[in-house]
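Re: the 307-residue chain
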Amino acid sequence: MDKLYSIVFSEDFKKKIEKIFVTLSIASFIIHLLLIFLKHIDVLNFSDDNLLTNPIAAIYTPFSFILVYEVFLVVYYLPRSISQYIRKQYEIITLIIVRRIFKDIANLEISTDWFNQKYDLQLTYDLISTLVLFFIIYLYTYYNTRNKSLNIKKHKIENLDVFVKRKKTIALLLLPVLMFLAFSSLFRWVYIELINVNQVFFSIQDINELFFNEFFTVLIMADVLLLLISLYKTDKFHEIFRNSGFIISTILIRLSFTTDGLMNNILIVSSVVYGFLMLLLHIQFDKISVKYPKEVALEEKESDKII
């Protein structure tokens, strides 16, 4: 298992995957621009499709490949750090909104009736949400990095090797599942939409319903497994509570795909804010055990006696 993990999740393999998806992103961007041009000169005749009317909308397609690469990074970081693994989930949902912005810009209608236009209003929600999410992810990364430097000074955690091995096993099992979901979603989309060719590029904007719904459902199951196997490492309340909070955060992200408009943005922002607050409280709780180790140990002994 360790040998397989060292091959699949090595830095060299990650760089190769990165190059593949960068190439696919560039190629898809050029193809999308070409299709827009061909429609403009009436060589192709698709039905009214907002993704084929504005060159800005062409950015939507390469972003889809970037998101798939981010999915790989979620699994890549899982065995290394749960907090980084969760942060990658937040980055994915933020990039999904950024991708949606490019689609909404293509539908933008500049008028005095801005707040009564569906796409204009959604664009406003998305622009504000991305700023808030980017700031919260920055704070999340900042405090998480500081906490890691603090943990270096702490004593070695018991059963850490067992915990890491189990995380590697979950990562190795998760990767083929996500690959299967990606290919099956692509096949379903192509099979269903090719029946009506005029609708192919129109329906690509609903690709979240095909893959990311199922993707975050799988992640919820993975998060629950991580919570359970974390008991091999520790039974400390604040760590169990943090991991439970991360599960709730992922569930909120999953629920956001079932809504649209303002409620979609509220659920996404709430999930990231909730996860950040969980991390922050966990860090503060951890500092107590570092700053007052004797007092904490004494309290634990007293609680054991009571039990």
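The radius of gyration is 22 Å.
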